[in-house]
Amino acid sequence: MNPSSIDLTAFNTFGFAVSASQYVPVRSARELQNYFKAAPDAPCFVLGGGSNLVLTRDIDVTVLHMLAQGFAVYEESDSHVLVGVQAGHVWHDFVMSCLNNGWLGLENLALIPGSVGASPVQNIGAYGVEVKDCISKIKAWDRLHHKWAWLAAADCAFGYRDSVFKHQFLDDARTQPRYVISKVFFKLLKDPALWQAKIGYGDVAACVAQIAGDAVVTAQHIAQAIIQIRSSKLPDPQVLGNAGSFFKNPIVAAQVAQKLKAQYSTMPMYPQADGTVKIAAGWLIEQAGFKGLREGAVGVYDKQALVLVHYGQGSGLELMAFAQRICAKVFEQFGVQIAPEPIVY
């Protein structure tokens, strides 16, 4: 694999015009292994679907673009199936393939942009479900020990939009991840009798009821509802640059939530299993006056305050300066810290 320079504008969903001095497409685990065997200590930047990424400058290290596609069944019983998926496989395509095969559990995560390999890094989640709930194990190249590593779900330290992959680095600057994910294994349900619909979040129940009518609710109904809801709230990156939800919902102590609820009775809150409370960041941003606001080449989407957009000819630095303004205003008004979801380079 001979590195070459490349324009990365089409490889990040914000559409920021940056380039990489060296670019290597990786289409298999063998290619990934061969690259690191040849250059074990060389710095690199691992790129997936580019949907959870803000590029603020040109990349001066080798970009490894994870493009391996496909999935296969590794184990199967009457009740469950274990499916291994290549890191470069498009996430939404995999979710729809699961539904077509009768594999249940990922339907609430339909239409999330990006690749399968990035899903455990961020522990992607939506509408009451997180991907960790279905991950069995992960195959990754361990750049510290120069060999393949197998990480069980319990090894991944999954949290809210968090995992071990966001904390294990080879350098103090935290630019060189220790693990490069090659394949993700999902344990999914096959038996509908063991499956439970998760429709208690946001507008999902009402939308599912409209779609299903008098029929028994299925995973397909839920996926259709999620697709419909997300399509109505989120812009198409091909039309308007964005990375989906840009801010994480803040989690606060129960006492803090009680005080906020007393002051702002309509503030959406979601109690967590550990006693903390999650607050809807979109509501905070909208109340702070940013929904639909445009500043130069960037702005907040007019249909969903969680989404920052790029209108073109702007930069990642411009976007991050705008995001910092939003965070500062929300903290000033509510005393609550919100933080970006995407990786910033």
Structural topology:
Elements: E1 4-7, E2 19-26, H1 29-38, E3 44-47, E4 53-54, E5 59-66, E6 71-76, E7 80-86, H2 91-101, H3 119-122, E8 125-126, E9 129-130, E10 135-142, E11 147-152, E12 179-189, H4 204-212, H5 219-233, E13 241-245, E14 251-252, H6 254-263, E15 269-271, E16 277-279, H7 281-287, E17 294-295, E18 298-300, E19 307-310, H8 316-334, E20 343-344
Helix pairs in contact: 4-5
Which features characterize this protein?
four-stranded mixed beta sheet, Uridine Diphospho-n-acetylenolpyruvylglucosamine Reductase, domain 2, alpha+beta, Uridine Diphospho-n-acetylenolpyruvylglucosamine Reductase, domain 3, 3 domains, 8 helices, 345 residues, Uridine Diphospho-n-acetylenolpyruvylglucosamine Reductase, domain 1
How would you describe this structure to a colleague?
- With 345 residues, this protein is of the alpha+beta class.
- It has three domains: 4-66, Uridine Diphospho-n-acetylenolpyruvylglucosamine Reductase, domain 2; 71-194, Uridine Diphospho-n-acetylenolpyruvylglucosamine Reductase, domain 3 (2-Layer Sandwich); 241-344, Uridine Diphospho-n-acetylenolpyruvylglucosamine Reductase, domain 1 (Alpha-Beta Complex).
- Helix content is 25%, strand content 27%.
- It has eight helices and 20 strands.
- It has helices at 29-38, 91-101, 119-122, 204-212, 219-233, 254-263, 281-287, 316-334; strands at residues 4-7, 19-26, 44-47, 53-54, 59-66, 71-76, 80-86, 125-126, 129-130, 135-142, 147-152, 179-189, 241-245, 251-252, 269-271, 277-279, 294-295, 298-300, 307-310, 343-344.
- The strands form six sheets. A five-stranded antiparallel beta sheet has the order 6-7-12-10-11. A four-stranded mixed beta sheet has the order 1-2-5-3. Strands 13-19-18-17 form a four-stranded antiparallel beta sheet, covered by helices on one side.
- 40% of the residues are buried.
- The model has no long low-confidence stretch (mean pLDDT 96).
